[in-house]
Amino acid sequence: MRIIPYVLYLLLIAFDRTILTDLVAIGPAHIYTAALLLLLVAQHKSYTAALWFGIAAGVVFAAPDPSRMGIQMFVLGFLGAAMAQLKVRFNLDSLRSRFLLLVGGLVLYSIPHTLFFTTAGSGSIVFAFIRVALPSIAYSAFVGWLFFMIQTGHLSFTRIKTLF
Amino acid sequence: MEWRVPGFSRENRTVLHTVLALILSLIFFISGEGLSGPVANVVTTIFYFPFHQVQAALTRLGQTAHDNEMLRTRMAELSIQLQFYNETIEENRRLRALLGFLPPPGFRLLPTEIIGVYGSGMPNTALINLGERHAVRVNQAVITRNGVAGRIARVLKDYSIVYLLTEPRCRVAVRIQRSREQGIIRYSLRRGMYLDNVPRGDDIVVGDTVITSGVGGIFPEGLVVGEIVNVVSPEREFFFNITVQPAVNFNGLDELYVLVPEG
């Protein structure tokens, strides 16, 4: 039964790849759903769980394009392992530390993602990073942070209501 | 989620998992689609298939909405076209009937449009779009395909006023088609259209057709005026009381023709 949440996360990745990604995209900025879910697992679960979930996420993420499955497995597995290692060096009770971990994880994901999956020349890699990756990091960080704030109770309907 | 490997310390297990994950990634990377292809098939079937179905359904729904909108617009266009065609069919029917509709000898037909009909209750006057410029003159007969409608009462340059048979001042000399008995068609609001001046004893029965007699010089002989629907023979009176059903429906006039003498 402990595997069910991971299966649901993987289904969410497939849902994002199929329907959600274009619906929630703002111009070139997409939400890095796979990376966000991996960060969630890495923050709350063990190193091995994060590592193997990263591998599984890579397999599911790359299923529509099997030629890149190995790289996706490596990138997401590496991200899961790195985040699981890094989280012990951060004070996760601090909002700032959590935010740094979130943004760091998204940057760590987007760099190889841009490097490996930008098919044109090296000039376009820089362009793709500025034009696509940076807005996507910002957008994903905002969504991830919003989720975290709601999850921890820092943001709730009652709190929002008190503002008005 | 913790996968424990017996006989390994925690540190070693971490290294072992990392190495296994790395090797697995490398195998997939090196093998290309040879290995990842079948795996992708399985993963697609399990994880992607439901969403592909949803996506296809959403696409179909969007397409259906688009088609629906397009069909509504097309239906409105076709509805307007249909109304136009129906009107054309009706006009065609009238024109076909007109082909077999010949004026009496010595006359030609001038088709005219009705600009307006006037009268309280039953229409008794009509304004038509032919006038002096079209050789229309006072007292010329005005007919429809069904029979006599009235006569020209006044002529302007481009318009004329027609007294219909329902105008009390419009009287027509007629005869019974079958028995050749003669009389005068009159109209009053109280009695409707009636045949006057027919002495008792003349041969008149319900159903007889009333036609113009040609007497008086306004209406040529032989135009249908109506049909006898009631014949009463009052005791101490000299004439019959005869009610006539006009051949023309004065409430539904659509086309009129002026009979203009040839030459």
Structure, briefly:
Chain A is mainly α. Chain A is built from seven helices and no strands. Chain A has a single domain, classed as Arp2/3 complex 21 kDa subunit ARPC3 (Orthogonal Bundle).
Write a structural description:
The complex is a heterodimer of chains A (164) and B (263). With 164 residues, chain A is mainly alpha-helical. Chain A has a single domain (4-163), classed as Arp2/3 complex 21 kDa subunit ARPC3. Chain A is 79% helix and 0% strand. Chain A is built from seven helices and no strands. Chain A has helices spanning 4-24, 33-44, 47-62, 69-87, 95-117, 122-152, 157-163. Chain B has two domains: 1-100; 107-261, Thrombin, subunit H (Beta Barrel). Chain B contains two helices and twelve strands; from the N terminus they run ααββββββββββββ. In chain B, strands 1-2-5-4-3-12 form a six-stranded antiparallel β-barrel. A six-stranded antiparallel barrel of chain B has the order 6-7-8-11-10-9.
